[in-house]
Amino acid sequence: MTLRGRTAVRWIAWTLSEICVTAGALIVLFVIYILFWTGVRADSAMAGEIGKLRHQWSTAPATAPGGTPAPDAKPAPAPGARPRRYAPGASFAVMYIPRLGADWVKPVLEGTAPDVLQRGLGHYDRTAHLGETGNFSVAGHRRTYGDPFKDFPRLRPGDAVVLTDGTTWYTYRIDRRPYTTLPGDIGVIDPVPPKSGFHGPGRYLTLTTCEPEWGHSHRLIAWGHLDSTQPVAQGRPSALTG
């Protein structure tokens, strides 16, 4: 091989090695972004949503002495009336799951669009409201964007899932270990999910996330029922203080 030929081979080899090094660096940076930076941004966004809710609740119209609404308080809905729809993309509740950690607390927002799930858990908009008869259904990321449901498989029957909307505490109890299904199995959020073991109307909870941990070919489902409610004015429920 001539000198010119050997030089050309060396140049090609050097160029390919540079391309490989650059591609490797980009892959590493992308992984860091997925594993770290999306988590930092999501944690900040979730903290912001919770802070915003707590501020709203703390500045809500107070009740006048004797239990009567203050003059500027909004009128209560008529008995049997369905509560006003949650605002799309907005947070409306805070969820606690003691099994997933003493400091595990996440905001719940209306809708399950990607941008919503980057700021917290998402409520399936056509499912029941908190405490209503029906199936209050919530989705969350297993990994990335704060890893809210990273430890989802740890849920066990009897575990508490506690939510508050600023006026009431709702304590749901998990009824069975997480169930694996396919993404197209939308019956899991039906008012009475077919495979849940529930019989007839009730006040149910469905939590959904991805399976496997770093994939999305399947879904993990946890079902529960409403165990108790109490006014926020009476303090935190026993499931959070015991």
What's a concise summary of this model?
By secondary structure, the protein is of the alpha+beta class. The protein has helices at 3-58, 114-117, 238-241; strands at residues 91-96, 105-110, 121-123, 134-139, 160-164, 168-174, 179-181, 203-211, 218-231.
Provide mean pLDDT, rounded. 85
CATH architecture annotation name: Beta Barrel
What is the helix tally?
3
CATH class bucket: Mainly Beta
Q: What can you tell me about this protein's structure?
A:
The termini are far apart. The chain has one domain (35-60, 88-241): Sortase, Chain: A, CATH 2.40.260. The longest helix is centred in the N-terminal third of the chain and has 56 residues, at 3-58. Strand 8 and strand 9 (218-231) form a beta hairpin. By secondary structure, it is of the alpha+beta class. It has helices at residues 3-58, 114-117, 238-241; strands spanning 91-96, 105-110, 121-123, 134-139, 160-164, 168-174, 179-181, 203-211, 218-231. Residues 59-71 have a biased composition (Low complexity). Keywords: Hydrolase, Membrane, Transmembrane, Transmembrane helix.
Provide the fold topology:
Elements: H1 3-58, E1 91-96, E2 105-110, H2 114-117, E3 121-123, E4 134-139, E5 160-164, E6 168-174, E7 179-181, E8 203-211, E9 218-231, H3 238-241
Name a few traits of the molecule:
alpha+beta, Sortase, Chain: A, 9 strands, single chain, 242 residues, 3 helices
